[in-house]
Amino acid sequence: MTKSERKKRNNKSKDEQRFTADTAKLRKFKEPSKSSTFLDKMKARLSGGHFRMINEKLYTCTGKEALNYFQEEPSLFDLYHAGYKMQMSNWPQQPVNVIIDWLKKKSPSLVVADFGCGDALIAKSVKNKVYSLDLVSNDPNIIACDMSNTPLDDSSIDVAVFCLSLMGTNYQSYIKEANRVLKPGTGSNIVLDSGWLLIAEVKSRFDPNTGGANPEKFTNAISELGFKSVKKDFSNKMFILFYFTKKDKQNFKRKEIEWPLLKPCLYKRR
Ligand code: SAH
């Protein structure tokens, strides 16, 4: 191996290195009929490693870079989602279902935007008009975009949802975009129940004992943007749910907001 090849290899993540090595082994393997279990194992390892690699990429780049990444190779998006579903199947409860239950108790006339919708389960489960947004669209009902720059109109949405989707390093620009498209909220006013911002995130990202963000700092940053924190739900084992409403009067002369860093949520090799 030359010096530059070694350097290149050292710059790769462990999963990338494993992925390259596994692909090479798989290519060398000539007799699939004799050892299908070996092949199955290798394929599972390959897709598991590949999922973790894409996942790490999404947590360590901007939304714009993520959009380019999937535009160049859309099949990676399906691979990512197959792995994501597998991870989720280990969770006792999925945050998207908690959000669906919450929405079902609200008026079906509320217009919803699902930022980073994945399979668009919210749109499939409620009667409301739902704008489902994600980086790639395999379904005519999903709008493909980087969610820091959506085609939605100003003040046109009653409920903005981020369910495990604050992945990019520029996550604050997604929340600013939600602020732009949300109508002002009235919180407990049942007649005009708008301006809701719901954020579900992986609990470990908000555990200051393990390098996670302080949930208070996160709430304060969003409050400074012009939201009122209504509720924080820590009751689930795997995720936190934040409920905010957009304030009627926005503070345009606000000082620079200090957004806490949200650490990537990386999955362990099983
Ligand atoms: N909300 C869904 C999917 C969560 S997975 C659920 O709870 O089941 C996170 C999703 O966010 C992925 O589908 C990913 O593609 C999307 N995402 C991440 N960054 C994005 C961005 N900048 N713009 C649009 N979607 C994004």
Automatic annotation (TrEMBL):
- Basic residues bias located where? 1-11
Q: Which subcellular locations apply to this protein?
A: Nucleus, Nucleolus
Q: Which GO terms describe its biological process?
A: chromatin organization; methylation; rRNA processing
Identify the InterPro entries for this entry. RRP8, RRP8_N, SAM-dependent_MTases_sf
On whether Plastid is a keyword of this UniProt record, the answer is no
Molecular function terms from GO = methyltransferase activity
Q: What is its EC number?
A: 2.1.1.-
Q: Classify the source by domain of life.
A: Eukaryota
Region of interest (Disordered), residue spans: 1-26
**What does this protein's UniProt record list under function?**
Probable methyltransferase required to silence rDNA.
Q: What is this protein called?
A: Ribosomal RNA-processing protein 8
Q: Which organism is it from?
A: Arachis hypogaea
Lineage per the UniProt record: Eukaryota, Viridiplantae, Streptophyta, Embryophyta, Tracheophyta
